[in-house]
Amino acid sequence: xxxxxxxxxxxxxxxxxxxxxxxxxxxxxxxxxxxxxxxxxxxxxxxxxxxxxxxxxxxxxxxxxxxxxxxxxxxxxxxxxxxxxxxxxxxxxxxxxxxxxxx
Length: 103
Hints:
Elements: H1 2-18, E1 46-53, H2 63-70, E2 75-87, E3 90-102
Antiparallel strand pairs: 1-3, 2-3
C-alpha cells in the first residue's frame, strides 16, 4: 500500500511540475466609439504590428509602444491576434501580436 501511494505521489508530482507554464497578462480596458471613424480611408492610415514570442519572458507589445514606433499620434483602431507555426498536431512558437492603425 505504501508503494502505491508513493508511486502515485511521484507520478502526480511529475505531471504537475513538468507541465507548468506561467504567462501573466493583464487585459487592457479600453472603449471607443468606432462609428466616428471613416473606415473607407483606412488604407491611408499608418499601421504598425508588434509581436511577442509567448515562450520568452519580457518584451513590450503595448499599444503605446506600437504607436510610438509608427509615429502615430491619433490611434484609430487596434487589432490583436495570435500567430502559430504548426507541424502535424504540434504548435510551435506561439506569438501574440498587436496592430495599431492611425494618423
